[in-house]
Amino acid sequence: MAESEHENASEGPPGGQGRAFARGLLAAFSIPAAVLFATALGFGALARDGGFSLAQTAFITASMFALPNQVVLVDQLARNETLLAAGFAVALAALRLLPMTITIIPLFRGGRPRPLVELIAVHFVAITPWIEANRRLPALPAELRLASHLGLGLAFSAVMLAGSLAGYALAGSVPAAVAATLLFLTPIYFLLSLLATSQSRMDLLAIGIGCALAPVLYVLAPGFDLLATGLLGGTLAFLLRRRRGGPA
Amino acid sequence: MTFTGDGFGGYLTIFLAGFLATEVWRWLGLLLGSRLAVAGAPFQWVRAVATALVAGLVTRMVLFPAGALVQVPLAVRLGAFAGGVALYFLLRRNVAAGVGGGAALLLAAQLVGR
Q: What pTM value is reported for the model?
């Protein structure tokens, strides 16, 4: 990853913020956006299956912006679970956003601290924008990163909303082979992006160990498997990062 | 729960069990992320945890899929996945080629396998 040479630049040129925001918006026309759209199609169909209205489906996507959690919420409510049980299941699934948000915040810093804008910006933390932020932001001048992430997050949010609504409308009318292929896009995009944005030996270790550990923990601790994979696999990668061959 | 009704109760349920239960982690992340130094060990550990978690999600989605992907045999899923990863490396780490190639392989295998 290129270390920013602009770290000490005081203020960007006038209009620099606006341009960074606009360039972030262009992320709506990118490979990750296409994958996100395809994944959101599946969610829209699921919400319709679960008996939700179109407006409720839009409200879920816009307010949550985290597809795996949305799937959990719809599944829980469709099965008539209590508010508390549904909320707990969603919170458990959403715990993965905590380490992602923690690691994205330092990328925003460098310009003037803007707590309110950051509070809005963290709403756009989900797997896809997290991956894209790791890929794009380090190369940008520090004071432009927050604006760029806001644009990117808004773009991805709009794409996910469009995908959810299209999926709701199309539910059941897509051939099975196409539906299966759409579901296949997400895991392969996630893995290749993790590889493309890895910065160190520790990152590569975390990818390898995480991949290997997940199926085992899925069988041993269903429901907690992802959290356990993250904690166990991540800790292992962290501990092994300096062994053999000196500092990473 | 009458979430299916388009009334206020349904939206309140979604707001509490959906939005709040999700957003609270982002707010907490903002609080904690502001206090950790990037070069420090705690931050590096959190980064490793986040990375391993996403990697774990990948294998879970391929090995134990949901929805229409269940109908595709495991060998086809794994073959198409490996093909996509191979394309990514062959074409000098091109993510688009890997994603597109893997998806094309999966679609082709399903159409041929009929």
A: 0.81
